[in-house]
């Protein structure tokens, strides 16, 4: 690296981005949040992290307790609606805000939800489609063989499929070693995995076998719920495959322990 | 907010013949998953049926446009159901049919029996019809002394086996060729034979069924669509058995439901383009038939008398409810083929007539939520069913709405309801939330840092029965980030004081106390990734995100500081 990176010349002002960390990243995988901030800054954004943030209300919503999730949706809207952009390192949480808040809320709150939804993006979508992140002068991040699990909410609610692959290609010069049935659910499903553990176990078992069969050393994904599920099963099986969030790969954070791995 | 007026809670007394076991879904599923051979068959089906469907849709190329069209046509027909039913009835009567309306299962069954008795019929040949599965017609007629033979190969197989369909399109998909061979050898009194090949099985079924077609006095079939403008009913089959049932016996009875009605022929054929591709991946079925009515004078064959029985069975209730989109369903079975839960457990686990995502919605609506409260929970909201649904039904949303009904009516387990309320309360109180989660996560981190994951976990036995529980990576992000902020603030104060002597006008607002929710000032970002506080857990852990000591990270990281604030620092190894 010989020249210091410069601001992209044709973007005059830095995009102001508020990061919704998501509760799972906050609690189980701070690396995802730190990596997201780092990536957004590399992409030339100014990043803000509202510290009062908690949970988007998805667990209650998907379990059918809409009454409990409504105040959480309103709380998140209040915390984030001043932002130019809201970026979320999770397809399902971004999908909750973009797709489900307008469905859950009504009246003035629905309008506010729609406003927020129009400015909310999942991380890889934001980096690839909105800011068009380029590697620039940085050398490509070296990665071992990577396979990718397309998490359902991101894939089907937000059309996230090409973005993480494009970013892996751009930043890491890496092509995904595709796993069979990558678009099939891993069996997490929020509370589903606890309500119907045996069926969930069959599904995650299939997912891990398909991932291991690719020969990849890392399984990446964009949703921590799925990744905790897959990592937990791989760890139970004793499979060596590392499970990591896509943000960690894209910023080259391979030194932290993979999800569910011991010292 | 979503309106959640569900259907009224009614005990299901309309289906005395069907033993519903939907509420033991988990036990049924457990049992189904014990059989490795069947599991393998289901896995293969789940792999190949989507491939076939996708191939058919890709070569067709107009899935999205046509499904929007079909959806609009279905919605229009349902919104004007009374008009189109009336029109259909008039046209069908004109064509010489008898038209009957049946309010519920018993009404349909007794209507059909009455017609059979009027003709002193003993033998009935029956085409595949999920509606008559719903009403339990076969058992009803059998109890009245009639002999009913299913003539669709799959239906025939499960009838011989005394089972119910496991799939709405392929009722015997759960049966292996070996099982069918054993069944035929036991049930058909045809002496010694091999039946080694699948073709032998089909051949034997064909010759056995031929007798039934020829001897039957009444034929019963279903319908895929009713066409209001001409009073025709449309049926698709791959075996031609529907046509034999319709044309060989003297009396034909078409049993279907009121929601099958469409305004025009072209609406039925538009629907057909999606139906067949979605169901079997074919461009069209081997047989597509339109039945107008009884044999006319110039006709050389056909039934002498035709009846159309239109079943309601709570469909008008569904139409008036927030679940009316479910009536758009064209019964293609694509949602079953694409549902990973259906693939895992098979159709019988659902414990009633309709399995898979569409069944998990229809069963509570057609029976009661009390009798099937497990089914709406058999969903990960993965959305694959909605993605392929040719009628564009938001199946995961309807399933979630049913879970909402369960919550409101306290049908879900109380510990789940309490847990969700507690979690939501906590998340509405950020200060308490962050304090408690901070403590809890720190404990879990310390307990699990060596192994990285837990084999067992209190309150998470469902999770740990199938997989380990990954330990948290370190302290929560919010506590780490707050520490970074505090340090930064202290540095800012110090710097402001130091510079106050020389340049008193700068730096004041940086030290102002932040209000809750106020944005973090951008200068915080200047240091945290590169200058972590080594006292913080996670920062000194091996390769933590904020640990910037490794050369790999240096090379990978953007070496710039925030834009325009100060000169950029070059990577040290440069």
Summarize it.
The complex is a heterodimer of chains A (263) and B (574). With 263 residues, chain A is of the alpha/beta class. Chain A folds into two domains: 15-129, Rossmann fold (3-Layer(aba) Sandwich); 136-250, Rossmann fold (3-Layer(aba) Sandwich), CATH 3.40.50.
Query: Roughly how many Å is the radius of gyration of chain B?
Result: 32 Å
For the biggest sheet of chain B, the summary is: 6 strands, parallel
Biggest sheet features of chain A: 4 strands, parallel
What is the CATH T-level topology of the largest domain in chain A? Answer: Rossmann fold
Distance between the termini of chain A: 33 Å
For the largest sheet of chain B, list the strands in their spatial order: 1-10-7-4-2-3
Helix count from the secondary structure assignment of chain A:
13
CATH class of the domain at 22-324 in chain B: Alpha Beta
CA-CA gap between termini of chain B: 57 Å
**How many domain units of chain A?**
2
Class from secondary-structure proportions of chain B: alpha/beta
> How much helix, percentage-wise, in residues of chain B?
40-55%
Q: Which architecture of the domain at 22-324 in chain B would the CATH scheme give at its second level?
A: 3-Layer(aba) Sandwich
Task: Just name the CATH architecture of the largest domain in chain A.
Answer: 3-Layer(aba) Sandwich
Dominant shape of chain B: elongated
Mean pLDDT of chain B: 87
CATH class of the largest domain in chain A: Alpha Beta
* Category from helices, strands and their pairing of chain A: alpha/beta
Percent of sequence in beta strands of chain B: 5-15%
Helical segment tally of chain B? 23
What ranges of chain B have pLDDT less than 50 throughout 5 or more consecutive residues? 1-16, 506-514, 516-574
């Amino acid at each position: 690296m010989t020249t210091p990176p410069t601001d992209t010349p044709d973007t005059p002002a830095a995009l102001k981005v508020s990061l919704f960390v998501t509760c799972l990243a906050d609690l189980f995988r701070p690396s995802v949040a730190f990596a997201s901030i780092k990536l957004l800054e590399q992409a030339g954004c100014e990043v803000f992290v509202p510290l009062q943030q908690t949970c988007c209300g998805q667990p209650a919503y998907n379990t059918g307790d809409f009454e409990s999730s409504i105040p959480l949706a309103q709380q998140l809207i209040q915390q984030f609606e001043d932002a130019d952009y809201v970026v979320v390192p999770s397809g399902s949480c971004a999908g909750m805000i973009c797709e489900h808040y307008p469905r859950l809320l009504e009246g003035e709150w629905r309008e506010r939800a729609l406003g927020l939804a129009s400015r909310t993006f999942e991380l890889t979508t934001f980096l690839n489609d909105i800011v068009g992140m380029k590697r620039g002068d940085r050398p490509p991040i070296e990665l071992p063989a990577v396979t990718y699990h397309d998490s359902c909410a991101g894939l089907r609610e937000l059309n996230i499929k090409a973005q993480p692959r494009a970013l892996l290609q751009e930043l890491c010069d890496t092509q995904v070693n595709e796993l069979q049935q990558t678009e099939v659910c891993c069996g997490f499903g929020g509370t589903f995995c606890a309500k119907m553990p045996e069926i969930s176990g069959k599904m995650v078992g299939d997912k891990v076998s398909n991932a291991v069969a690719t020969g990849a050393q890392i399984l990446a994904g964009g949703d921590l719920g799925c990744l905790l599920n897959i990592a937990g099963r791989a760890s139970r099986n004793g499979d060596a495959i590392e499970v990591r969030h896509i943000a960690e790969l894209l910023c080259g954070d391979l030194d932290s322990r993979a999800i569910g791995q011991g010292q | 907010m979503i309106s959640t007026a569900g259907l009224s809670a009614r005990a299901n007394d309309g289906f005395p013949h069907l033993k519903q076991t939907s509420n033991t879904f988990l036990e049924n599923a457990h049992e189904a998953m014990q059989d490795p051979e069947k599991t393998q068959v289901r896995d293969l089906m789940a792999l190949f049926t989507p491939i076939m469907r996708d191939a058919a849709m890709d070569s067709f190329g107009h899935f999205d446009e046509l499904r929007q069209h079909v959806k609009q046509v279905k919605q229009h027909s349902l919104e004007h159901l009374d008009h189109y039913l009336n029109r259909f009835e008039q046209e069908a009567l004109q064509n010489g049919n008898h038209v009957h309306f049946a309010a519920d299962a018993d009404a349909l069954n007794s209507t059909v029996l009455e017609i059979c008795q009027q003709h002193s019929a003993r033998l009935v040949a029956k085409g595949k019809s999920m509606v008559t599965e719903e009403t339990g017609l076969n058992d009803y007629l059998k109890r009245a002394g009639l002999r009913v033979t299913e003539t669709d190969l799959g239906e025939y197989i499960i009838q011989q086996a005394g089972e119910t369909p496991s799939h709405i399109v392929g009722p015997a998909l759960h049966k292996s060729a070996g099982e069918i061979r054993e069944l035929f050898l036991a049930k058909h009194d045809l002496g010694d034979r091999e039946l080694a090949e699948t073709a032998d099985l089909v051949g034997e079924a064909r010759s056995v069924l031929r007798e039934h077609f020829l001897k039957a006095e009444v034929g019963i079939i279903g319908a895929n669509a009713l066409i209001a403008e001409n009073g025709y009913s449309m049926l698709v089959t791959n075996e031609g058995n529907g046509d034999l049932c319709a044309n060989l016996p003297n009396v034909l009875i078409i049993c279907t439901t009121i929601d099958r009605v469409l305004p025009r022929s072209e609406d039925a054929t538009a629907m057909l383009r999606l139906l067949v591709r979605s169901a079997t991946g074919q461009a069209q079925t081997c047989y597509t038939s339109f039945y107008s009515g009884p044999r006319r004078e110039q006709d050389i064959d056909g039934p002498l008398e035709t009846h159309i029985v239109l079943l309601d069975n709570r469909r008008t209730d569904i139409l008036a409810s927030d679940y009316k989109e479910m009536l758009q369903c064209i019964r293609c079975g694509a949602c079953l083929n694409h549902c990973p839960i259906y693939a895992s457990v098979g159709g019988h686990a659902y414990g009633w007539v309709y399995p898979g995502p569409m069944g998990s919605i229809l069963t509570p609506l057609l029976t009661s939520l009390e009798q099937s409260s497990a089914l709406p929970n058999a969903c990960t909201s993965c959305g694959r069913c909605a993605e392929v649904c040719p009628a564009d039904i938001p199946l995961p949303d309807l399933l979630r709405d049913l879970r909402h009904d369960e919550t409101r009516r306290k049908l879900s387990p109380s510990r789940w309801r309490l847990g969700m309320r507690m979690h939501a309360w906590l998340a509405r109180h950020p200060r308490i939330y962050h304090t408690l989660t901070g403590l809890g996560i720190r404990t879990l981190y310390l307990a699990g840092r060596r192994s990285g994951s837990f084999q067992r976990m209190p309150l998470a036995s469902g999770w740990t029965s199938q997989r380990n529980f990954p330990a948290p990576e370190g302290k929560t992000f919010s506590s780490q980030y707050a520490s970074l902020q505090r340090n930064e603030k202290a540095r800012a104060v110090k710097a402001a004081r130091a510079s106050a002597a020389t340049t008193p006008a700068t730096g004041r607002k940086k030290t102002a106390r932040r209000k809750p929710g106020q944005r973090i000032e951008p200068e915080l970002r200047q240091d945290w990734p590169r200058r972590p506080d080594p006292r913080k857990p996670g920062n000194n852990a091996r390769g933590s995100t904020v640990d910037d000591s490794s050369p790999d990270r240096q090379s990978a990281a953007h070496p710039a500081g925030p834009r325009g604030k100060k000169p950029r620092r070059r990577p040290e190894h440069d």
